[in-house]
Amino acid sequence: MMDVTQRPPSGADRGASEAAEAFTPTLYDVVRDLRRDVAAVRLPLDLPGRGDALGSRDRLLGQLEQHLLPRLKELSAPAVVVVAGSTGAGKSTLYNSVLGAEVSPAGVLRPTTREPVYAHHPADADVVPAEAPAATQSRVVATEAVPRGIALLDAPDLDSLEESNRDTARLLLEGADLWLFVTTAARYGDALPWQTLELATERGASVAMVLNRVPRDTLPTIRADLMARLREHGMDSTPLFVVPDLGPHEGLLDDAVVAPVRRWLTLLAGRERSRSVVVRTLQGSLDALPAWVARLAEAVEAQVAAGAAVRATVRDALPDVAAAARRGILAGGVAHGSVMAGWAQLAHARVDAVKVKDGTARSSKRAGRRREAAIEPVLTDLLASVGHTWESTADAAEAALRAALTGDGAPAGGPDAAPLVEDGAQDRPVQARAAAAAWEGEALGAVRALTGGRADAARQAYGDRGLAALLLLGAAGLDDAVRASSRVVGDEAAAVVERLRASLADRVAAVPGTVATGVLAYVDGPAFADDAATGLRLRRAELVRQTRHARAMRGGGARAASTRPAVAVDAHGTAGGTTVPAAHGTEGAA
Ligand SMILES: Nc1nc2c(ncn2[C@@H]2O[C@H](COP(=O)(O)OP(=O)(O)OP(=O)(O)O)[C@@H](O)[C@H]2O)c(=O)[nH]1
Ligand SMILES: [Mg+2]
Fold first, then answer.
1. Residue 142 in contact with residue 2, Cβ under 8 Å?
2. Is there an atom of ligand 1 within 6 Å of 246 CB?
3. Over the stretch 497-527, which tens digit does the pLDDT of each residue have?
4. Does residue 37's CB lie within 6 angstroms of at least one atom of ligand 1?
């Protein structure tokens, strides 16, 4: 299949309304999109009526997939208009001119067209019956020059010396909804046109005739003669297009010359499109859809609302846990038990009794290393305690979230979301250790940032890790450790300790948020997006619009058929006096 680059439309007849019509979705488009939206519906939270809604969704999907879409696809298949006639009549030239592009090669060799061309609107690609001979025998081309609802076929000639050409042309005509018969001023008297028209009448197929290459001076005479003949054959209602001979030329005919044919095809397309919705058997099914879709949309909206409530519940539960965790840190909660005992031992061993002269520590490197090694186990205990605090905060957050989601006053759908607070629980010990290590790293960074002779002496007296440990122990709440560090560092120590304490409080206060990530990610999923039901709502509105339109068309269809507008015109735009029949015959009966 290929796209044909379109020549810009030039005739005033190809106005904006025509372009707009080409992009109005058809009923098939709407139902196809609806199927996609319905299939995408998820109702994750176990809200009241969810089981029913899911059952309803499955039945709706079945109805759309098994019944409506196949029927609509069939009914929306483009009406096949075959351009047929004798070789050299100018079929391909006319065809290309109507499409505004050289889609089917025309030429001087007789016959030229051997491979039929099947052109349809790109938006109809889904409904082209790929297995029908019209498509299988042809090169299939998508082009916006063809109105939606129509497939325009350029056929090989009907009177060729080539038997295969004649066979193909006949096969195409068998499957055609409309025969656009092209003959010339020189050939319309032959037997072929009249035989073909009789064949069409016999089959009840609709026919329109193009009298091509008519010399301008004889145009009125020839048209009158042809119309007399049509009357003789009882075919005076056949639409007739008279195209004047433009003399020897290459390429496309003047746009104005083919405009009436094009306009008439558009008219026909509109009728074909409404044909697809006049079928009563579908009307009942279609009428049931809007309410069905609305109920499903309500179920989706209930999920969205419940998701928002879960989100709010989680957000509301977090601050209390975070605040409690922060209070615990500021109250010295991590410096308990073995940390205190360890520090007491260090104090007893006078590890903190560094000689200080004029505010500067006096200690050898060796003594410093010894102190560092002595403090190390207490630091290890402290960091383990930080890790435990991190994890117990996570446990508290988990418990609080679970209670908020399942206890009294829990939102609908909360119990479904509650298990998600355990999401990532297996990673927490690692995260806890990482948080403690990061906090330690911060202290080491602070120690290394201390400059000046006094700071160098302090770092020598305890080693960097030892001094960092003093600051961390101070931040954890051991005032003696703050004093010990201040002795060697000065006032700056207290400031660093404060910073480290605040940072630890922040790290632990952030834990509840981490625990809530799983639940929050869940309720941020597409099933809970604000616009989760928008697609269904839009589809529903479009369905109502289309079926209302279809009903109106059905009501007006009979009238339209009886007031058949005259469209048979020649290139000068003057009415030819003949009338257009119900080109497809079906909707008159509907
Ligand atoms: N003078 C003149 N020549 C035309 C006109 N329309 C088509 N031709 C020429 O007639 C020749 C045959 O045109 P085609 O469009 O290939 O005819 P066709 O009916 O498709 O022929 P087959 O494919 O063989 O069945 C080409 O050389 C065209 O240029 C016309 O209105 N006036
Ligand atoms: Mg041809």
1. yes
2. yes
3. 999 999 999 999 999 999 999 999 999 999 9
4. no
* Ligand 1 atom, smallest distance to 213 CA: 31
Phi then psi for residue 117, to 5 deg, are -120, 130
CATH 1.10.510.10 assigned to 78-276+566-590? no
Taking the CA of 210 as reference, the closest ligand is 1
Distance between CA atoms of residues 460 and 37, nearest Å: 70
Query: Rounded CA gap, 439 and 13, in Å?
Result: 77
The closest-lying atom of ligand 1 relative to the alpha carbon of residue 93 is 15
Domain boundaries, the chain: 78-276+566-590, 303-528
β-bridge mates for residue 570, sequence order: 242
H, E, C per residue of 469-536: HHHHHHHHCCHHHHHHHHHHHCCHHHHHHHHHHHHHHHHHHCHHHHHHHHHHHHHCCHHHCCCCCHHH
Query: What is the C-alpha to C-alpha distance for residues 239 and 222, in angstroms, rounded to an integer?
Result: 16
Q: Which single residue is written with the structure tokens 């099933």?
A: 527
Tokens found for residue 535: 């697609």
Could you tell me which residues come within 8 angstroms of residue 491 by beta carbon, excluding any fewer than 6 positions away? none
Distances (CA, A) of 230 to 170, 203, 234, 269: 22, 18, 6, 25
| Rg of the chain on CA atoms, in Å | 43
**The model's pTM:** 0.71
For residues 530 and 371, what is the distance between their CA atoms, to the nearest angstrom? 61
pLDDT over threshold 70, residue 430: yes
- Kindly state if the Cβ of 110 falls inside 6 Å of ligand 1: yes
